[in-house]
Design a protein that fits this description.
Distance between the termini of chain A: 44 Å
Order of helices and strands of chain A: HEHEHEEEHEHHEHEHEH
Largest interface: A-H, 47 and 47 residues
Number of strands of chain A: 9
Oligomer: homooctamer
Radius of gyration of chain A: 18 Å
Chain lengths: 222, 222, 222, 222, 222, 222, 222, 222
């Protein structure tokens, strides 16, 4: 079974981001083989899209050999030790609605896994504009703002016109009908009127956090 | 040629909205036949989507027999006399950008053809939020607000959360790439987070104005 | 958990429409937190898309502290007291088929929550034209007609040519194959030949009712 | 050049429908080669989608060797002799709007090429329902009714519920925005609520006429 | 509950096709109300898309009051008496694969309900061309050939070039990936190279049979 | 039941590829009839898309009469005897990720059923480029390389620029959001920058193996 | 200008296929720079998608310094010397209609540029099945059959069931309406019922020829 | 005319990015009004999507009152003075092919307008992998890498796995057929296997540069 797997354990050295394990689509045998390899090599790794079955499989495979830190809202599991957090909060994660929270939490958990705290600001969609407006000053101090929104994804457009930091839109699959499982939010975010808004795949809180890490990491370079 | 046409001249009596002529797709012979019929029956009519060729054909066909009032920005022509305007301004037409103005003007001209003035408020897209916010009090007094916006169409979501009147979103075909000739704006507007926003076809300023007339006319009924 | 929620309890003051709770996508914990907040603040609220699980959670959370009025066809729940109904029936809700009834009922229940009665007229699709034609006089007295139809959504086109009131099309996800879960009905309604038909998202009976409230409420303004 | 062509001159014997030439996509050399072959074999043939360039090429190639009967509205050309018309009118061709007439005329001309007259009934779309209703008795006597309609294509649904004959919907590429060059009309027609409506490709007046010929021809068989 | 239903019991008189009941999307209460109405009025009716639950509900509702003839492959139920079959077989129902058989059977059962026998010819897709070719003579005697095919739907193109009768393509939702639940088959059938092939919605065996009845019935008219 | 089936048992003689049975979409009765026919005619056959139910049905139907060789990862079953393997390994099957392995295994099993070994190389996606680069020399000796990849399907582009053999891309339905169940991978593979990459339907490991057999078999011809 | 270009002149050594120049999308300055580089390095190269402007630019740039062999039907230009043809004809290029010929010729010209002759067989679409059937024996001797077809692309399905060689489908953008500029043909070809048909991008005659070269070249390897 | 415009001249103060003028969709009168306003207020501004007509209009309007720096490849115009360049090159702009250069140049020109130099690296697509690989060390020193690629957009996936900086993918509308005017590249880039790649709208070189400025600017904040 292991021959089906080919973990890129040196990725962290190369690009500053260690490989993570997307559990969706992996068989139980593959998940067990990954955990076994981590135990053997004394490595730690972030698991994402961990549904309840995968959670059980990974926990059992880790046994007591590796510490497990799991979060069911974000469906993420830390296998092995996480780093100490950075002293400052440099990234905000903002959602339009409460249904967007699980995706936002995936971003927050990924940031924490890389040692970054996050300012969490939820349910501030533009239909009730003042909820957002009164918190703009906080957002203006952030180096990165991750906007998690489904439906019409108007949030990143508004935020992009108000803050100077990197604005990353994460469209979500919330909504129904012509929301088209997030495609409308995705396309709307790509057409955001504010300059320089960038976008990830639908529900990709993990990817947004990685992009934020890249942006912060870049800051250390000349 | 006339046998290809079948004008519904009693529509105004039935639903309060006279038929209008969508010039796009009609042959020169058909346009001439319509104008001849109007001259013969001493009627007036609104022509929309009047490109430069259609404008020339209609003008020549009308000759001096009927007054012509044409506007090239909105590509609309009044053939025959328009009604006197209503005393109050009850409808606002708002655009996100300056590229949306031709569609907005189609709405304004259609409103005027039915005797309604319009408050025109252009280029107040949410990327520069304060342009819109400072004019919200004016919008809150309107019975109908027509929001004309392309790209991500965030404008109707924001307006819908701020005003009590009927909010009609008109998506426009401005933009490029994934704006998809207005489909992204259309789908985003249909997913607007604010409750009770309704939507027309892409670039359909005429239809939005008709819906506004319906809403205002309805007010006269019990 | 409450920090994930940010209810806009003053929306009613601002735009005349109180916020409602779309249950789909919300976690059990979020639903419980909303009900707790309502109990604490002695507020009432409309819940929509209440599947059987959500219904159980909301009912249990309300306990005896707030009255509950639930309807399983429309999947709506009133938590707290509803207003007294308006004296006149000013809105009709019409369906093409019997499969469209749940969406229609969502509109009717939302109207009632805002104090409006509705004339309900079901299964009058255009394939059996006389079912509709014989009831046109009733529809012509309405200030708003909500047309709920799936498949080819021919109903709003026909109705829009027969009545002077506001015509709101609600496409539904009924049908199969190229009905595409309501997208064909949506696009057809947006292309309705009758002037001034406006459209909501697929299955959005709630939104159509809110638009009707806006149209009726607008009538009170100058 | 002739080796690029492979006319199926015996098709008429096999299925009762002779081959026709779709000019769109064919080079000038190919068109000339086809006409030359017809002259040589003393055959006649229907040409469709004959734009002005193709019209000129075909006319010149035919010279005086074959009679030419061309119609610019339908963009069809008869090269060679057409059959005598059938004594009865058994097919109606109906359009929703005047922009649909060119496609309707392609059907009419194809029917005539096969010896069938057509009852032409144009601009009777359902937005002005009485235009259609008053002519239903005529349609009820027809063995085939071809409904040509763009936009929301509500016409075939209504007609299908009123007449017993074969109902063939031809969606057209008229309209704009979400009409999507006829795809919305196509999908709506395929979802027509009336039982047994069948559909052709967008703008395919030729195909609808061929299907009508099949239906009529079939009537001669046991 | 009955007020949600509005059966068109005179449709048969008007267009020669009685109304049928599409069970999908109908609630148990609605199905029971329909059967009760049939019992009360001593009518019979065809039920389609009868899944196992609907089958049980309909059977129980009919009790012994009306005869029931159910077929699980086609998911159709005759409630009440069916007519005697026509003396001749005038319609063929052909499938490309064995997965298309349930849809084909829906057509066959609908034909039988209207008194028409059907020649059934299954699993003769063009990938094994000779299976089809050796049976062409049988097909050439038919007045209507219904071609049921998914995937690339090449079957109606080939059949359309070989037989003179009406050719009705029924695309099916068989296949996977880019078969797109039947949309590829649908679009391919609409583009069939053979002249005069007409098409129904995906999996619409019922509609194809109704169109066949129209074509045969038409033959009785002048 | 057998009359619903029409196995093409001579296909192997005609094109060198025996027919296989795609279980998805087939009823239990149809599967049993196929196995019965194989037993009767003493033939062997490859079954694909064998879910757990189908696996049980086929196994039971074969009883002891025919040997069964089943693989649950690839969901393939050999019913009857497989040929001896070819002496050389001429085909590589490469995957981008570990989630693509089931599709790859379907290709491998199909190859083995036709007597071809396969070099299996898994989880070498371009995000960790060196995993692939270090194994290019092996791939350069292969006559066919089957690239199985979902998401952005960048793998076939890179491989196509590095090896001289036939490169067949098999897009997979792995991924989420805008991966669109494999359509993005499909379209990306069709746009592969490297010359002469060919593509199969999504998840069609069976088809890719058949194409490889054609390429190898062709090599025996002049 | 040259810094915008980065020709991969060693590709031929690596994968057996030299780089070609896709003219579409390249500026005049870029085309001139490429030709200048070829003259300087005494190389030859195939240019594709050479519209009339590009043809003039390339011809002028080559001056007398390099031989030019241009073909306007296929819009291909050989700049520099082509190889001597292979002794045997191992590839057939087949089209469904005469409108598909330009794409077929692009494949033929690309094959010839690599030293391969092609059997050209045009206008043998399945609507006139016997045109194809009578030529099947010729096709059965070929190692590769390239099927060029638009509309419903039924041709590769039929051919794939009749010949043992590699079958490559090239969908074309011929047709109208739901042909969708070749997407329907593309998707239909990917769903071809015959096993092991592979597919290229729409109108990609060049790519199909390259795939054929790969298949033939593979034959030389062990 | 000026009332149609509402320039956001303080945007630079708020978010660090001055407003720019997207010329596409703006009328000649609007462009002239913008330039007049700049002259009056002594401001400078970047114009993008400046086609030849717009270029002429803007140049004439500026007269000698403001300096003009225009680039036809990128279709950008600087109206007024540009800032002095930053001392270090911190952003790379990379293209897959030479057809992607105009979009890349739009990014480069936008960067320069904000005082940033760019490392330009063109025509290094993954079909010729070594062109890219040999330049990876340069890319690894960059804080931002903008990857401009059409077709299958494999470039950002490969780059994202090799460099630690921010990776921004700009899909382009190059290519044909299923490239779908850039949608395939867009969707593929959003599915990029490498972690943390972010994406802009199709052909949006301007937006990518703005995002890069945000990332660099962010570095100055705490």
């Amino acid at each position: 079974m292991t021959s089906e797997l080919n973990l890129d354990l040196l990725r962290s050295v190369r690009i500053g981001l260690p490989e993570a394990v997307l559990c969706a689509g992996k068989s139980a045998a593959q998940l067990r083989a990954i955990v076994a390899q981590l135990i053997e090599q004394k490595k730690s790794m972030l698991f994402t899209r961990v549904d309840d079955d995968a959670h059980r499989i990974v926990s059992e495979a880790a046994g007591g050999a590796l510490p497990i830190d799991d979060d069911r809202t974000s469906r993420t599991t830390y296998v092995g030790a996480a780093p100490a957090p950075h002293a400052m909060t440099r990234v905000a994660v903002v959602t339009a609605g409460s249904s967007d929270v699980p995706v936002a939490k995936e971003a927050v958990r990924t940031l924490q896994w890389h040692g970054e705290n996050a300012l969490e600001m939820y349910d501030v969609g533009v239909a009730g504009l003042w909820r957002l407006v009164e918190r703009v000053p906080e957002l203006q101090t952030m180096r990165v703002v991750i906007c998690v929104a489904g439906m019409d994804a108007a949030l990143p457009s508004v935020v992009g016109g108000l803050v100077p930091g990197v604005v990353i839109a994460v469209p979500t699959s919330t909504g129904y009908g012509v929301a088209r499982s997030g495609e409308t939010a995705l396309h709307a975010a790509l057409c955001a009127c504010s300059s320089g808004v960038v976008v990830t795949n639908i529900d990709n809180g993990y990817g947004a956090a990685c992009a934020a890490i890249r942006a912060l990491g870049a800051a250390k370079k000349p």
